[in-house]
Design goal:
InterPro entries: AcoX-like (IPR039065), ATP-NAD_kinase_N (IPR017438), NAD/diacylglycerol_kinase_sf (IPR016064), NADK (IPR002504), Put_ATP-NAD_kin (IPR011386). One of its GO terms (biological process) is NADP+ biosynthetic process. Pfam families: NAD_kinase, NAD_kinase_C. This is ATP-NAD kinase. The protein is built from 14 helices and 16 strands. A hairpin with a 2-residue loop joins strand 9 and strand 10. The protein is α/β, with parallel strands linked by helices and 382 residues long. Helix 5 crosses helix 6 and helix 9 packs across helix 10. The strands form three sheets. A nine-stranded mixed sheet has the order 10-9-8-11-13-15-16-14-12. Strands 3-2-1-4-5 form a five-stranded parallel sheet, with helices on both faces. The chain has a two-stranded antiparallel sheet with strand order 6-7. The protein folds into two domains: 204 residues, Probable inorganic polyphosphate/atp-NAD kinase, domain 1 (Rossmann fold, 3-Layer(aba) Sandwich), CATH 3.40.50.10330; 158 residues.
Length: 382
Protein backbone atom coordinates (compact mmCIF):
# COMPACT_ATOMS: atom_id res chain seq x y z
CA UNK A 1 0.00 0.00 0.00
CA UNK A 2 1.23 3.49 -0.91
CA UNK A 3 0.99 6.33 1.61
CA UNK A 4 0.07 9.57 -0.18
CA UNK A 5 0.22 13.05 1.31
CA UNK A 6 -2.37 15.39 -0.22
CA UNK A 7 -2.28 19.20 0.02
CA UNK A 8 -4.45 21.83 -1.68
CA UNK A 9 -3.56 25.51 -1.85
CA UNK A 10 -7.19 26.68 -2.05
CA UNK A 11 -6.35 30.19 -3.26
CA UNK A 12 -3.98 29.11 -6.05
CA UNK A 13 -4.95 30.56 -9.42
CA UNK A 14 -7.64 32.82 -7.99
CA UNK A 15 -6.24 35.86 -9.81
CA UNK A 16 -6.28 34.29 -13.28
CA UNK A 17 -9.78 34.94 -14.61
CA UNK A 18 -9.86 38.47 -13.16
CA UNK A 19 -6.67 39.40 -15.03
CA UNK A 20 -4.28 39.76 -12.08
CA UNK A 21 -1.66 37.46 -13.66
CA UNK A 22 -0.98 35.70 -10.39
CA UNK A 23 -2.29 35.02 -6.91
CA UNK A 24 0.72 35.58 -4.67
CA UNK A 25 0.36 37.83 -1.65
CA UNK A 26 -2.50 38.89 0.61
CA UNK A 27 -3.15 42.10 -1.31
CA UNK A 28 -3.53 40.23 -4.60
CA UNK A 29 -5.90 37.78 -2.95
CA UNK A 30 -7.94 40.64 -1.48
CA UNK A 31 -8.16 42.38 -4.84
CA UNK A 32 -9.10 39.15 -6.62
CA UNK A 33 -11.98 38.58 -4.20
CA UNK A 34 -13.11 42.19 -4.61
CA UNK A 35 -13.22 41.62 -8.38
CA UNK A 36 -15.48 38.63 -7.88
CA UNK A 37 -12.91 35.85 -8.25
CA UNK A 38 -13.97 32.38 -7.16
CA UNK A 39 -11.45 29.80 -5.85
CA UNK A 40 -10.97 27.01 -8.39
CA UNK A 41 -8.02 25.00 -7.08
CA UNK A 42 -10.31 22.70 -5.13
CA UNK A 43 -12.35 21.83 -8.22
CA UNK A 44 -9.19 20.97 -10.16
CA UNK A 45 -7.89 18.86 -7.29
CA UNK A 46 -11.25 17.09 -7.12
CA UNK A 47 -10.91 16.15 -10.78
CA UNK A 48 -7.69 14.35 -9.88
CA UNK A 49 -8.89 12.69 -6.70
CA UNK A 50 -12.08 11.27 -8.22
CA UNK A 51 -9.91 9.17 -10.53
CA UNK A 52 -8.28 7.49 -7.53
CA UNK A 53 -11.47 5.86 -6.25
CA UNK A 54 -10.94 2.54 -8.13
CA UNK A 55 -7.53 2.12 -6.44
CA UNK A 56 -8.60 3.31 -3.00
CA UNK A 57 -7.61 0.03 -1.35
CA UNK A 58 -4.04 0.47 -2.59
CA UNK A 59 -3.71 4.00 -1.20
CA UNK A 60 -3.53 5.43 2.29
CA UNK A 61 -4.27 9.16 1.96
CA UNK A 62 -3.00 11.59 4.57
CA UNK A 63 -4.25 15.14 4.24
CA UNK A 64 -5.04 18.44 5.97
CA UNK A 65 -8.29 19.81 7.42
CA UNK A 66 -10.94 21.70 5.50
CA UNK A 67 -10.16 23.27 2.16
CA UNK A 68 -6.53 22.16 2.28
CA UNK A 69 -7.50 18.59 1.39
CA UNK A 70 -10.14 17.06 3.65
CA UNK A 71 -13.09 18.66 1.83
CA UNK A 72 -11.84 17.33 -1.51
CA UNK A 73 -11.37 13.79 -0.19
CA UNK A 74 -14.94 13.83 1.16
CA UNK A 75 -16.34 15.03 -2.17
CA UNK A 76 -14.36 12.35 -4.03
CA UNK A 77 -15.70 9.67 -1.67
CA UNK A 78 -12.19 8.69 -0.56
CA UNK A 79 -11.11 7.38 2.81
CA UNK A 80 -8.46 9.56 4.42
CA UNK A 81 -6.79 10.46 7.67
CA UNK A 82 -5.72 13.87 8.90
CA UNK A 83 -2.02 14.43 9.49
CA UNK A 84 -1.48 14.45 13.24
CA UNK A 85 0.03 17.92 13.42
CA UNK A 86 -2.77 19.50 11.41
CA UNK A 87 -5.78 18.27 13.38
CA UNK A 88 -5.84 21.37 15.57
CA UNK A 89 -6.20 23.59 12.48
CA UNK A 90 -9.83 22.55 11.99
CA UNK A 91 -10.65 23.66 15.52
CA UNK A 92 -9.31 27.20 15.16
CA UNK A 93 -10.11 28.03 11.52
CA UNK A 94 -13.19 27.63 9.30
CA UNK A 95 -13.13 25.23 6.38
CA UNK A 96 -13.24 28.13 3.94
CA UNK A 97 -10.35 30.12 5.38
CA UNK A 98 -7.73 31.68 3.14
CA UNK A 99 -4.47 29.85 3.68
CA UNK A 100 -0.90 31.16 3.61
CA UNK A 101 2.42 29.86 2.26
CA UNK A 102 3.34 28.91 5.83
CA UNK A 103 0.31 26.62 5.99
CA UNK A 104 1.51 24.79 2.87
CA UNK A 105 5.06 24.47 4.19
CA UNK A 106 3.90 23.29 7.60
CA UNK A 107 1.56 20.75 6.03
CA UNK A 108 4.28 19.36 3.76
CA UNK A 109 6.69 19.04 6.68
CA UNK A 110 4.12 17.23 8.81
CA UNK A 111 3.21 14.83 6.03
CA UNK A 112 6.86 14.10 5.41
CA UNK A 113 7.34 13.37 9.11
CA UNK A 114 4.44 10.90 8.96
CA UNK A 115 6.37 8.88 6.42
CA UNK A 116 4.26 9.35 3.31
CA UNK A 117 5.77 7.95 0.12
CA UNK A 118 4.78 10.89 -2.11
CA UNK A 119 3.17 14.32 -1.72
CA UNK A 120 0.45 15.24 -4.20
CA UNK A 121 -0.25 18.97 -4.10
CA UNK A 122 -2.54 21.38 -5.99
CA UNK A 123 -1.31 24.90 -6.73
CA UNK A 124 0.95 26.98 -8.93
CA UNK A 125 4.59 28.03 -9.02
CA UNK A 126 4.34 29.74 -5.62
CA UNK A 127 2.99 26.54 -4.09
CA UNK A 128 5.83 24.54 -5.67
CA UNK A 129 8.29 26.91 -4.00
CA UNK A 130 6.59 26.29 -0.66
CA UNK A 131 6.86 22.52 -1.12
CA UNK A 132 10.51 22.93 -2.12
CA UNK A 133 11.26 24.93 1.02
CA UNK A 134 9.60 22.27 3.18
CA UNK A 135 10.88 18.97 1.78
CA UNK A 136 13.49 19.63 -0.92
CA UNK A 137 14.30 16.40 -2.76
CA UNK A 138 13.83 14.19 0.30
CA UNK A 139 10.56 12.75 -1.02
CA UNK A 140 8.86 12.45 -4.43
CA UNK A 141 6.11 14.94 -5.22
CA UNK A 142 3.64 15.67 -8.00
CA UNK A 143 1.77 18.89 -8.66
CA UNK A 144 -1.85 19.20 -9.77
CA UNK A 145 -1.86 22.34 -11.98
CA UNK A 146 -4.16 24.94 -10.40
CA UNK A 147 -2.21 28.20 -10.57
CA UNK A 148 -2.16 31.14 -13.00
CA UNK A 149 1.45 30.82 -14.10
CA UNK A 150 2.94 27.36 -14.16
CA UNK A 151 6.52 27.56 -15.40
CA UNK A 152 7.78 24.76 -13.14
CA UNK A 153 8.35 21.26 -14.49
CA UNK A 154 6.95 19.55 -11.37
CA UNK A 155 3.30 19.59 -12.47
CA UNK A 156 1.23 17.05 -14.32
CA UNK A 157 0.02 18.23 -17.73
CA UNK A 158 -3.57 18.46 -16.47
CA UNK A 159 -5.51 17.45 -13.32
CA UNK A 160 -6.68 14.39 -15.24
CA UNK A 161 -3.09 13.46 -16.11
CA UNK A 162 -2.20 13.79 -12.42
CA UNK A 163 -4.94 11.30 -11.55
CA UNK A 164 -3.89 8.87 -14.25
CA UNK A 165 -0.27 9.05 -13.12
CA UNK A 166 -1.29 8.43 -9.51
CA UNK A 167 -3.18 5.33 -10.60
CA UNK A 168 0.02 4.06 -12.22
CA UNK A 169 1.85 4.90 -9.01
CA UNK A 170 -0.68 2.96 -6.91
CA UNK A 171 -0.23 -0.04 -9.21
CA UNK A 172 3.53 0.06 -8.68
CA UNK A 173 4.22 1.04 -12.30
CA UNK A 174 6.22 4.20 -11.55
CA UNK A 175 9.81 3.06 -11.23
CA UNK A 176 11.97 6.09 -11.97
CA UNK A 177 12.19 9.65 -10.70
CA UNK A 178 14.02 12.76 -11.83
CA UNK A 179 14.81 16.16 -10.39
CA UNK A 180 12.65 18.83 -12.04
CA UNK A 181 12.96 22.62 -11.99
CA UNK A 182 10.95 24.85 -9.66
CA UNK A 183 10.61 28.18 -11.45
CA UNK A 184 8.73 31.32 -10.48
CA UNK A 185 8.46 34.87 -11.74
CA UNK A 186 8.27 38.28 -10.14
CA UNK A 187 4.53 38.95 -10.35
CA UNK A 188 4.93 42.71 -9.96
CA UNK A 189 7.20 42.82 -13.02
CA UNK A 190 4.91 40.34 -14.79
CA UNK A 191 2.01 42.78 -14.44
CA UNK A 192 4.21 45.38 -16.15
CA UNK A 193 4.77 43.05 -19.10
CA UNK A 194 8.20 41.81 -17.95
CA UNK A 195 8.67 38.06 -17.55
CA UNK A 196 11.60 37.60 -15.16
CA UNK A 197 11.75 33.88 -14.37
CA UNK A 198 14.08 32.51 -11.70
CA UNK A 199 15.18 28.98 -10.83
CA UNK A 200 14.61 28.28 -7.13
CA UNK A 201 15.66 24.65 -6.97
CA UNK A 202 14.55 21.13 -7.80
CA UNK A 203 11.91 18.70 -6.64
CA UNK A 204 11.86 14.94 -7.21
CA UNK A 205 9.01 13.92 -9.55
CA UNK A 206 8.03 10.72 -11.39
CA UNK A 207 9.99 10.38 -14.62
CA UNK A 208 6.84 10.03 -16.73
CA UNK A 209 7.02 12.54 -19.59
CA UNK A 210 3.65 11.48 -20.94
CA UNK A 211 1.99 12.83 -17.80
CA UNK A 212 4.36 15.52 -16.46
CA UNK A 213 4.74 18.86 -18.23
CA UNK A 214 8.00 20.34 -19.51
CA UNK A 215 9.72 23.50 -18.34
CA UNK A 216 8.33 26.60 -20.05
CA UNK A 217 10.73 28.04 -22.64
CA UNK A 218 10.98 31.33 -24.49
CA UNK A 219 11.15 32.35 -28.11
CA UNK A 220 14.31 32.18 -30.22
CA UNK A 221 15.46 34.62 -32.89
CA UNK A 222 15.03 32.00 -35.62
CA UNK A 223 11.27 32.37 -35.29
CA UNK A 224 11.19 35.99 -36.45
CA UNK A 225 10.76 35.41 -40.18
CA UNK A 226 8.02 32.86 -39.63
CA UNK A 227 6.16 35.15 -37.22
CA UNK A 228 6.44 38.14 -39.57
CA UNK A 229 4.81 36.28 -42.48
CA UNK A 230 2.20 34.81 -40.15
CA UNK A 231 1.31 38.29 -38.85
CA UNK A 232 0.86 39.55 -42.39
CA UNK A 233 -1.50 36.70 -43.21
CA UNK A 234 -3.59 36.83 -40.01
CA UNK A 235 -3.90 40.62 -40.10
CA UNK A 236 -5.37 40.40 -43.61
CA UNK A 237 -7.90 37.83 -42.42
CA UNK A 238 -8.94 40.18 -39.63
CA UNK A 239 -9.26 43.09 -42.05
CA UNK A 240 -11.53 40.98 -44.26
CA UNK A 241 -13.88 40.17 -41.38
CA UNK A 242 -14.06 43.31 -39.20
CA UNK A 243 -17.57 42.42 -38.00
CA UNK A 244 -16.14 39.86 -35.59
CA UNK A 245 -15.01 40.55 -32.03
CA UNK A 246 -11.43 39.29 -31.81
CA UNK A 247 -10.31 37.98 -28.42
CA UNK A 248 -6.52 38.11 -28.58
CA UNK A 249 -4.71 35.98 -26.00
CA UNK A 250 -1.49 36.42 -24.09
CA UNK A 251 2.06 35.89 -25.30
CA UNK A 252 4.83 37.39 -27.39
CA UNK A 253 3.49 35.89 -30.64
CA UNK A 254 0.04 37.45 -30.31
CA UNK A 255 1.71 40.70 -29.18
CA UNK A 256 3.72 40.65 -32.42
CA UNK A 257 0.46 40.30 -34.36
CA UNK A 258 -1.05 43.32 -32.60
CA UNK A 259 2.14 45.34 -33.11
CA UNK A 260 2.13 44.45 -36.81
CA UNK A 261 -1.39 45.88 -37.08
CA UNK A 262 -0.31 48.99 -35.17
CA UNK A 263 -2.59 48.25 -32.23
CA UNK A 264 -1.76 48.76 -28.54
CA UNK A 265 -1.71 45.49 -26.64
CA UNK A 266 -1.09 43.85 -23.31
CA UNK A 267 1.77 41.37 -23.64
CA UNK A 268 0.63 39.27 -20.70
CA UNK A 269 -3.09 40.05 -20.85
CA UNK A 270 -6.10 39.50 -23.09
CA UNK A 271 -7.18 42.29 -25.48
CA UNK A 272 -10.36 42.78 -27.50
CA UNK A 273 -10.42 44.05 -31.08
CA UNK A 274 -13.53 45.12 -33.01
CA UNK A 275 -13.75 46.88 -36.38
CA UNK A 276 -10.04 47.64 -36.31
CA UNK A 277 -10.09 49.22 -32.85
CA UNK A 278 -8.96 47.93 -29.47
CA UNK A 279 -12.08 48.10 -27.31
CA UNK A 280 -10.70 46.29 -24.28
CA UNK A 281 -7.23 45.90 -22.79
CA UNK A 282 -5.97 43.45 -20.16
CA UNK A 283 -9.49 42.06 -19.87
CA UNK A 284 -10.89 39.77 -17.19
CA UNK A 285 -13.19 36.83 -17.90
CA UNK A 286 -16.19 38.99 -17.00
CA UNK A 287 -15.01 41.75 -19.36
CA UNK A 288 -14.88 39.24 -22.19
CA UNK A 289 -18.28 37.74 -21.39
CA UNK A 290 -19.81 41.24 -21.29
CA UNK A 291 -18.29 42.02 -24.71
CA UNK A 292 -19.69 38.77 -26.10
CA UNK A 293 -23.19 39.81 -25.10
CA UNK A 294 -22.77 42.97 -27.17
CA UNK A 295 -20.80 41.35 -30.00
CA UNK A 296 -21.85 37.66 -30.14
CA UNK A 297 -19.96 36.95 -33.37
CA UNK A 298 -16.43 36.40 -32.12
CA UNK A 299 -13.14 34.66 -32.74
CA UNK A 300 -10.33 33.73 -30.37
CA UNK A 301 -6.67 34.06 -31.36
CA UNK A 302 -4.16 32.29 -29.11
CA UNK A 303 -0.62 31.02 -29.36
CA UNK A 304 1.29 28.03 -28.02
CA UNK A 305 3.39 28.16 -24.87
CA UNK A 306 6.91 27.31 -25.93
CA UNK A 307 8.39 24.14 -24.44
CA UNK A 308 5.08 23.05 -22.94
CA UNK A 309 2.53 23.18 -25.74
CA UNK A 310 -0.45 24.63 -23.89
CA UNK A 311 -2.99 26.71 -25.82
CA UNK A 312 -5.55 27.11 -23.02
CA UNK A 313 -5.24 26.98 -19.24
CA UNK A 314 -1.78 28.48 -18.73
CA UNK A 315 -1.52 32.26 -18.39
CA UNK A 316 -4.76 32.91 -20.28
CA UNK A 317 -7.41 31.74 -17.82
CA UNK A 318 -9.37 34.89 -18.70
CA UNK A 319 -10.33 33.00 -21.87
CA UNK A 320 -12.30 30.60 -19.72
CA UNK A 321 -14.29 27.49 -20.58
CA UNK A 322 -17.45 29.61 -20.70
CA UNK A 323 -15.83 32.06 -23.13
CA UNK A 324 -14.72 29.18 -25.36
CA UNK A 325 -18.18 27.61 -25.20
CA UNK A 326 -19.83 30.85 -26.33
CA UNK A 327 -17.36 31.53 -29.13
CA UNK A 328 -17.31 27.96 -30.41
CA UNK A 329 -14.36 25.79 -31.33
CA UNK A 330 -14.68 26.59 -35.04
CA UNK A 331 -13.88 30.21 -34.27
CA UNK A 332 -10.54 29.58 -32.56
CA UNK A 333 -7.31 30.36 -34.41
CA UNK A 334 -4.00 29.07 -33.02
CA UNK A 335 -0.89 30.84 -34.27
CA UNK A 336 2.75 29.88 -33.72
CA UNK A 337 6.03 29.70 -35.56
CA UNK A 338 7.13 26.39 -37.05
CA UNK A 339 10.15 26.44 -34.74
CA UNK A 340 7.89 26.57 -31.70
CA UNK A 341 5.77 23.65 -32.93
CA UNK A 342 8.80 21.56 -33.89
CA UNK A 343 10.46 22.30 -30.53
CA UNK A 344 7.71 20.24 -28.89
CA UNK A 345 9.34 17.16 -30.35
CA UNK A 346 6.20 15.70 -31.83
CA UNK A 347 4.24 15.98 -28.59
CA UNK A 348 0.61 17.10 -28.87
CA UNK A 349 -0.75 20.51 -27.94
CA UNK A 350 -2.36 20.67 -24.50
CA UNK A 351 -5.46 22.18 -22.93
CA UNK A 352 -6.52 22.51 -19.31
CA UNK A 353 -9.66 24.65 -19.18
CA UNK A 354 -10.96 23.12 -15.95
CA UNK A 355 -14.14 22.00 -17.73
CA UNK A 356 -14.32 18.37 -18.88
CA UNK A 357 -16.92 19.06 -21.56
CA UNK A 358 -14.99 21.95 -23.09
CA UNK A 359 -11.75 19.97 -22.92
CA UNK A 360 -13.40 17.22 -24.96
CA UNK A 361 -14.74 19.78 -27.45
CA UNK A 362 -11.21 21.04 -28.08
CA UNK A 363 -9.48 17.68 -28.56
CA UNK A 364 -8.45 16.30 -31.92
CA UNK A 365 -6.46 17.66 -34.84
CA UNK A 366 -6.57 21.42 -35.43
CA UNK A 367 -4.84 23.76 -37.89
CA UNK A 368 -2.04 25.92 -36.49
CA UNK A 369 -1.18 28.93 -38.63
CA UNK A 370 2.61 29.14 -38.85
CA UNK A 371 3.17 31.54 -41.74
CA UNK A 372 1.57 33.15 -44.79
CA UNK A 373 -1.07 30.59 -45.85
CA UNK A 374 1.10 28.05 -44.04
CA UNK A 375 -0.69 25.63 -41.74
CA UNK A 376 0.41 22.63 -39.66
CA UNK A 377 -2.12 20.13 -38.34
CA UNK A 378 -1.51 19.46 -34.66
CA UNK A 379 -3.17 17.05 -32.25
CA UNK A 380 -4.74 18.50 -29.09
CA UNK A 381 -5.20 16.44 -25.91
CA UNK A 382 -5.92 17.06 -22.26
Amino acid sequence: MKKIGFIVNPVAGIGGKVGLKGSDGTQTLKKALELGAVPEAGAKALGTMKLLKPMEQQLEIHTCPGNMGEDICKQAGLNYRLAEGTKAWSQCSPSSRNTTPKDTMDAAGMLCNEGVDLILFAGGDGTARNILDAVGTSIPVLGIPAGCKIHSAVYARTPRAAGELMLRYAEGRVMEYREAEVMDIDENLFRQGICDARLYGYLKVPNEKKFVQNLKSGRGCSEDASIQSMCMYVSRLIEQEPEYLYIVGTGSTTARLMNYMGKPNTLLGVDLLFQGQVIGSDCTEQDILAALKKYPRAKIIVTVIGGQGYIFGRGNQQISAEVIRRVGTKNIMVIASRDKIFSLGGNPLLIDTGDEEVNRMLTGYIPVTTGYKDVIMANVIY
